[in-house]
Amino acid sequence: MHRRHRERGIVVNRRQFVSSLGASALALPGFANGGAKPLRGIFPIMQTPYTPDNRVDNAVLAKQVHFLERCRVHGMVWPQLASEYFHLTTAERIAGVEAILAAGKGVKPAIVVGCQAPDSSQAAEYARHATRLGADAIIALPPQGMTEEAAITAYYKAIGAASPLPMFVQAIGNMSVDFVVRLTMEVPTLRYIKDEAGPVLARYGEFRRKAPELHSFTGGHGRTLYDEMVRGFAGSMPAAAFGDLYSQAWDLYHAGRKREAVDYFSRACLLIIEVETYGLEAIKYILQLRGVFPSYTIRKGPGGGGGGKAVAFDDGARRSLRELMEHVRPQLLV
Questions:
Q1: 3-state SS string over the chain?
Q2: Structure confidence by residue, pLDDT tens digits, 10-41
């Protein structure tokens, strides 16, 4: 009974929120989404390409949108941790989102824009920008170093107030299940989670019991994707380099062709081991091998641009990836 009352309260709050935005907000590109593009399935985190003089290559970002569409992914996300967002300036993020959403007009996959920032006012501005340009949803990490629940709640409330788009919370650190559940009550648009804050398979059962209206995604390169599909997760946000292996595994599994799904997922696992070992350079190198990126350049600096991997991405690593890509090539769509 208590859960039923709580769910009714959430629906009322969402309606009140939408009503308060007025007709002008309803006319914004992308607001009609409300789920027009399903937020379910394989949503790769897009990587950030750079020019030889270390500028963000917006033309290649746009190219990546069409590459992922041909990979039959269900959505795509930029910029998040695997996009090196912590090395991007505000101007680079604004221009990158504009390039992606311009390229994404008319594509089937949903486009989710990352809005995290060091403070709520900047995050809210990113959310407003994404809404104006017609994004399908937004996602945000809490600010680095922010651990107090009241501060995190205020941060997400500010983002939610800035945009009517469906929101993902990217849970990290000590964000407990109960805290995330309380957060959904405070932020009417928050109905999705990318959970990276603990044992996600065990936490999923808790979320299902305590907040069945919250849809769970994972990250972690999709290394437990098959288990997640069995349990009923809403989706996964792996890296973009071999999104077609993930998307085909997902589609086959949900079409009841589970043996074939295992075959595609097993191919993905070969590459997951490599990218977990070598980090972002390996991911970008695969995109280079596939003709999407001109190089596997990463930005160095505080925050670990190489994904914090201690193993050097050397000649042996590149040779291994070239050989593995030849092995999985028959299963690739592009």
A1: CHHHHHHHHHHHHHHHHHHHHHHHHHCCCCHHHCCCCCCCEECCECCCCECCCCCECHHHHHHHHHHHHHCCCCEEEECCHHHCHHHCCHHHHHHHHHHHHHHCCCCCCEEEEECCCCCHHHHHHHHHHHHHCCCCEEEECCCCCCCCHHHHHHHHHHHHHHCCCCEEEEECCCCCHHHHHHHHHHCCCEEEEEECCCCHHHHHHHHHHHCCCCEEEECHHHCCHHHHHHHCCCEECCECCCHHHHHHHHHHHHCCCHHHHHHHHHHHHHHHHHHHHHCHHHHHHHHHHCCCCCCCCCCCCCCCCCCCCCCCCCHHHHHHHHHHHHHHHHHCCC
A2: 333 433 433 333 333 333 333 334 448 999 99
pLDDT tens digits, one per residue of 179-236: 999 999 999 999 999 999 989 999 999 999 999 999 999 999 999 999 999 999 999 9
Domains of the chain (ranges plus CATH)?
30-272 (3.20.20.70)
